[in-house]
Amino acid sequence: RGSVLHWYTYANPFYNWGKSVELKTIPFIKWKPFLLQKFAHKKIHLDDDVIKYVLESMYYVPNYICKLCSDIYETHSNTKISNMAVSETINRTYLNSQSRYAEKIAFLTNKQIKLLAVVASKKKIKEMTSNEIVSASGISTRGILTIYKMLLDKGYLERDEEGVRIADPLFAYYLLREF
Fold it and tell me: Can you say how many angstroms the Cα of residue 171 is from the centroid of all Cα atoms in its chain?
C-alpha cells in the first residue's frame, strides 16, 4: 500500500495545485482597436459590423477569435473584409479541423451527440430541461441532466450567467453541419 501511495503522490505532483481563473469576455470596444491595428499591416479593413460578426461567430472566446483572425490575415491583403469573407474563412478553418471534431465525438453516445447538436442549433440555452430542449432532443429530463453534467465536466459545454453553449465555436459549426 505504501508504494502505491508513494507512486501516486509523485505521479501527480500538481494534483489540486493552483486555482481556476475565469476570464471575462473582452468587449467589442477593446477588440476593435487591436484588430484594426493588426490588420492594418496588410491593409485589411474591417467595418464595425464585420468585427462584431467575427466576435459573435467565435462566441467572444479570445483564442478562437485570434485563430479566425489569423486565418483571415493569412489569406487576405489590401482589401475590405465582408461578413461573407469571414464566413468563408470559418468554413475553411472548420474543414481543416473536421477530422479533429469527428474524433472528438467518436466516444460519445447518440444521445450525447443529439443534445450537443440541439445546443449548437440554439447557440445559447437558458434552461437545459425546458420543454423545447426535451422535445428537440427526444431525451427525458433526467437523461438531459445526466448528459449535461458529463458534457459540462468534459468541457464540451460551457455555462455562464446567460446560459449554456458549446464551448468551442468551431465544434458548434461542425455539429450544425454534420448533425
Answer: 6
Q: Tens digit of pLDDT for each residue in 67-110? A: 999 999 999 999 999 999 999 999 999 898 899 999 999 999 99
Specify whether the CB–CB gap between 42 and 77 falls below 8 A. Answer: yes
Closest by Cα among 117, 114, 175 to 140:
114
Which residues, at least 6 apart from 60, have a Cβ–Cβ distance to it below 8 Å? Answer: 25, 26
Q: Which residues pair with 164 in a beta bridge?
A: 125, 159
CA proximity to 156, closest of 127, 125, 120, 130? 120
Backbone angles phi, psi at 140, to 5 degrees: -65, 160
Alpha helical stretches, state H, the chain:
2-11, 28-40, 48-57, 62-75, 83-105, 110-122, 131-137, 141-153, 169-178
Q: How far is CA 29 from CA 32, 33, 62, 73, in A?
A: 6, 7, 14, 20
pTM over 0.90: no
